Amino acid sequence: MNVRSTVLIPPALSVRYSRDSAGRAWLGSLPGLIQGRLEHWELTVDLPAGASPWHGHGGVVIPVGLPDGSPAALKVAFPHDEARLERHALALWGGAGAVRMLDADAGTCAMLLERLDAGSSLQTVQMDEAAAVWGSLVRQLSLVPDHRPAWQEFDHIAGRAEQWSDDLPADWEQQGRPFPRWLLEAALEVCQTRGAVGRRAGRDVLVHTDFHFMNILARPRASAADGAGGSAGLSYVAIDPQPMIGEPEFAVAPLLWNRLGDLPRSDPAAGLNQRCLDFSAAAGLDADAARQWAVAREVENALWYASRPGHRGDMQRSLWVASTLAGQTLDGLPAAHDLPEPSAASGGSVSPRP
Hints:
Elements: H1 11-17, H2 21-40, E1 44-45, E2 54-55, E3 59-65, E4 71-77, H3 81-93, E5 101-105, E6 110-114, E7 117-121, H4 127-141, H5 157-174, H6 181-200, E8 205-208, E9 216-219, E10 228-229, E11 235-238, E12 243-246, H7 253-256, H8 268-283, H9 287-306, H10 312-326
Antiparallel strand pairs: 1-3, 2-3, 3-4, 4-6, 5-6, 7-9, 8-12, 9-11, 10-11
């Protein structure tokens, strides 16, 4: 079969990957990569003429039809560490709690996936229902490592924390000490305690480290098995896992730096801490461990934003969340409801480290 299809590259993706030589090279190869996978898997593009496919921060997702006419999605990602690991995590989950992978090509970072409803995420679901769905999915996704070779592919969260113990102080100095030392030390305390504790805890599981509201999509009603149900009769599953091994509490943080506009205006700080408690309880997690990990992750995010021009608002959001969870919201930051939301394309954070 040799069907020529022209798939438009989303402008936002082109802008993002035109900033360096590796990105430009990938953009130049992308039409050929897409065409090659369409031909190899005998797929037909299921897009209106002139329409752009879906995309995230790191790749493009094209609705396609399988040879038998059933719907699917072709994902082609920029070749980075998280993209290379995604197929291993999806294979381990086998469609239970996560999008089902039908096939994969490691050489092109391409995957053939079941098609989900891209317009139905947890981003607009009421928070109590979102917590129930999220908690149910965490329980499904928290697989315990076994003998299968795929487990050897994932980094350990405790090891990442130990790395941050060295990197965060150096980054803080290099960026001109962009926030008070006490907040840096709060993050370092998490890295030093949970990094070591995580190694000894004996409760390592597979962790979706980018598990925010937009990375949970509904399955079409006709194929709604093996997900977490919502009140509208929808079955939700996870996408874009950025998988690691370690404490499942690491997964709570992206919920806390998204949807800040839903926090109560009367006391957003209390609302943020309550959200941490509610989502942790829904998944059977330790809320204090989740809070600690969120402090460390948001301090790391803040330093990454500080190193990039044009991300002052994002840095302020990270500092508001981190300092609030650490117990003392920093002075001089915008009110919670005036902070920018993470972009839809980048989800929880644009940092390359989860």
